Amino acid sequence: MGALSHIRVLDLTRVLAGPWCAQTLADFGADVIKVERPGAGDDTRHWGPPYLKTPDGQDTAEAAYYLAPNRNKRSVTLDIATPEGQRIVRELAAQSDVVLENYKVGQLKKYGLDYESLRAVKPDLIYCSVTGFGQTGPYAPRAGYDFIVQGMGGFMSITGERDSLPGGGPQKAGVAIADLMTGMYSTIAVLTALAHRDRTGAGQYIDMALLDVQVAMLANMNTNYLASGTPPARWGNAHPNIVPYQAFQTTDSWIILAVGNDGQFRKFVEVAGRPELADDERFATNPARVRNRDTLVPIVAELIRTRSKADWIGALEGAGVPCGPINNLAEVFENEQVVSRGMQVDVPHPSGATARLVRNPIRMSETPPTVTSHPPTLGEHTVEVLRDVLGYSEEQVAALRGQGVA
């Protein structure tokens, strides 16, 4: 019984942004009914390899990508292109508090599944649309993809190595950050709308756009530009205002050195065996180090290359110099802090496999998020939902299956 166990969400989304929002709500107990296409389902079910494997090493039908944003949900298959499928979606909406969808602008209106149509059957409904560019503006009809939005929204202009250095140029993030952040902002919007409904009884429409979110999440980089009129540049792993504050290669790996003040710099060069650098007027203060970055950074890089990652981290942490490793994911999930915090959760799957997932990072004393069920197999709960939520008989469900509707 989670904090949102009184809420039902009808999830018409697929891929990542919408499902990430739905999963977050489900982690707090919401009953999330995921509607998928019969025979195919969410596109990400097939975005592999890798796939979830059975104990004997055989691939299941669930790609690892699909597993990431779909736990704690119930899967129902419905062909919403058919009048019967549309009728069932309207019936489910009438029994739901929230509808999530990420179809192209106007696509659901022709099916009678847009906000105004569903609001007619559920006046206090909260309806959240997630698209690439929103419901208005000249780009509204376009399909939105995370990679494109990272470029259009300015993120790639400030991410990547400097053009003047080897490997320089724009770089996307290693995960679909525009999708993920849109999922998180959508969660906030839905929860806000639920709070408003609880006070006033009124539902509302939510218009979420990946491009809006990508622009908003640039935070201080936005205000740096708006205050100065000069677009920020790419700095790779370096910092424009602090030196040395970047990644350096050791004998066996990489570390991050994050010297934030002059005292930390003195401690670093003492650990590195070059204490005289702290008194060199070129490096004694941070402004001086920034001015002489091109001289100092090669010196630091040469020093760091003389010892291993473990040696440096042990020595620098002992001296109070901020630093950290650059871990691959095997090292992440072996890290003692990550293990202690229980970030990996193992969930039994109907195939006999164990779905290894990552727990919700939110920790609360009274209403914590939980993992209660595996990412559902395609249509796993069709009979259950149609029977228990809408009161359909087994014969009615069988007829829908025979017609290819469910």
TrEMBL record:
InterPro entries per record: CoA-transferase_III_domain, CoA-Trfase_fam_III, CoA-Trfase_III_dom3_sf, CoA-Trfase_III_dom_1_sf
Keyword terms, alphabetized: Transferase
The organism's place on the tree of life at top rank: Bacteria
Gene3D superfamilies: Crotonobetainyl-coa:carnitine coa-transferase, domain 1, formyl-coa transferase, domain 3
SUPFAM superfamilies: CoA-transferase family III (CaiB/BaiF) (SSF89796)
EC number, UniProt record: 2.8.3.22
Protein name in the entry: Succinyl-CoA--L-malate CoA-transferase beta subunit
Source taxonomy: Bacteria, Pseudomonadati, Pseudomonadota, Betaproteobacteria, Burkholderiales
Gene: smtB_4
